[in-house]
Amino acid sequence: MPKRILQGRVTSDANAQTVTVSVERRFKHPVLQKTIRKSKKYRAHDENNAFKVGDTVRIIECAPKSKTKRWEVLEA
């Protein structure tokens, strides 16, 4: 099964080797036909603390690294 790759914006880099990435998805409401934006935050592993708040990054699924980290940063 292929690993999912998502793109989002770094919202926090306060923790060591971890960044919080906010991923936004857009879809059309089934009844109202209005475009809706929903976002979800993912905690991703950043080995070298290379990414800062505001950077746009791509993250990929991985084996669990901690209680909340199941993603790692692929590239900027």
From TrEMBL:
Part of the 30S ribosomal subunit. GO terms for molecular function: rRNA binding; structural constituent of ribosome. This is Small ribosomal subunit protein uS17. GO terms for cellular component: cytosolic small ribosomal subunit. It holds the Pfam family Ribosomal_S17. It comes from the Bacteria. Signal peptide: none annotated. Belongs to the universal ribosomal protein uS17 family. It comes from Roseovarius nubinhibens (strain ATCC BAA-591 / DSM 15170 / ISM). The gene is rpsQ. Keywords: Ribonucleoprotein, Ribosomal protein, RNA-binding, rRNA-binding. NCBIfam families: PRK05610.1, uS17_bact. One of the primary rRNA binding proteins, it binds specifically to the 5'-end of 16S ribosomal RNA. One of its GO terms (biological process) is translation.
